[in-house]
Automatic annotation (TrEMBL), chains A, B:
<protein>
    <submittedName>
        <fullName>HD domain-containing protein</fullName>
    </submittedName>
</protein>
<dbReference type="InterPro" id="IPR006674">
    <property type="entry name" value="HD_domain"/>
</dbReference>
<dbReference type="InterPro" id="IPR039356">
    <property type="entry name" value="YfbR/HDDC2"/>
</dbReference>
<keyword id="KW-0378">Hydrolase</keyword>
<keyword id="KW-0479">Metal-binding</keyword>
<feature type="domain" description="HD">
    <location>
        <begin position="16"/>
        <end position="178"/>
    </location>
</feature>
<dbReference type="GO" id="GO:0005737">
    <property type="term" value="C:cytoplasm"/>
</dbReference>
<dbReference type="Pfam" id="PF13023">
    <property type="entry name" value="HD_3"/>
</dbReference>
<dbReference type="GO" id="GO:0002953">
    <property type="term" value="F:5'-deoxynucleotidase activity"/>
</dbReference>
<dbReference type="GO" id="GO:0046872">
    <property type="term" value="F:metal ion binding"/>
</dbReference>
């Protein structure tokens, strides 16, 4: 029996377990326990399935789910950068590209190329699928912060205008979800959990 | 703006966060930290994507991924039953069905019906998609136990014949993966981390 191809896939499956140790700044719903990247990725993938009807454009849902399941794997090498970090750049850095090449590179070559391309498409945010996937990535922490009396907005003194700017990514994927998100953000000011 | 449909979906998205607190018996790779159901579901979904070529039958990969992302949600109400538990029945119990109806029932009716059907299909294990999904569910803890010097096999005194019986589910989804899994199980006896 030839397990050569499979053995590479198993090495990858083993390696990605490390994402379970990468802590995000955002906390679970109604909780002070930080979320890790595996939990976050699971939640986004299932959100995409449940919310797909709200995408403004027709989307290949399997591709969206793939994007969301793998989008944070580069953080195994490159670490998590907080969305509101004012120093580090939360975009496609050299370190993340090197991480993508190393981690996906554990897979058989064709499969590695395919997943690197999916990851790059997510990062670029230009296709319908990546726009919807990125909307999910902005939506979850908004809901979490709402449930945690402001959560990271309070903890890191993030103001309304900055939240609106970062969350407006949701609009590129879904006008309907953006209308809802915008209403939640405005409500957060009224509730006193987000400062103008 | 009418957010009625969306509001139900958001309630569901909020509710399923609870799966992040449900601890499995199996531990992370090379670790003594128990895995939770969200991490487990994330890992299985990505395993299905990476290993799909090994399915014996043609599969709808999106459906497989959906199954794996939702398969443990019923444990929010019904709790985790250890695979090798000799008292509790690790099959579709009344408690699990009631849990499925309550949790998926938070969604708009058509969507709830769809996901309950997907969950039931997984539990029944009769279609190509459910067979492959169930193979993933057996494969991950096998790899984890291998990495943890026997892990739950040692901890709960589970013997070779029982492991072989439970893991043979993998064969229904993929002969190739089963050949690999069987070799790992046999190797575990040779390595002294699984008793005959």
């Amino acid at each position: 029996m030839n397990f050569e191809q499979l053995q590479k896939q198993i090495v990858f499956i083993h390696e990605i377990d490390k994402i379970k140790y990468i802590q995000r700044k955002t906390r679970l719903f109604n909780s002070d326990r930080a979320e890790n990247d595996a939990e976050h990725s699971w939640h986004l993938a299932l959100m995409a399935i449940v919310l797909s009807e709200h995408s403004d454009q027709k989307i290949d849902l399997l591709k969206v789910v793939k994007m969301l399941l793998i989008h944070d794997l580069v953080e195994i090498d490159a670490g998590d950068v907080f969305l509101y970090d004012t120093v580090a750049n939360h975009t496609n850095t050299e370190a993340e590209l090197a991480a993508a090449r190393r981690i996906f590179g554990l897979l058989p070559a064709a499969q590695a190329d395919d997943l690197i391309a999916v990851w790059e498409e997510f990062e670029a945010g230009e296709t319908a699928e990546s726009k919807f996937a990125r909307a999910m990535d902005r939506m979850e922490p908004l809901l979490q912060n709402r449930s945690n009396s402001g959560g990271t907005w309070q903890e890191f003194n993030v103001k309304y205008d900055k939240v609106l700017e970062k969350k407006s990514v949701i609009r590129e994927g879904s006008q309907h979800l953006w209308n809802y998100a915008k209403a939640l953000i405005d409500q957060s000011v009224e509730d006193g959990i987000l400062q103008k």
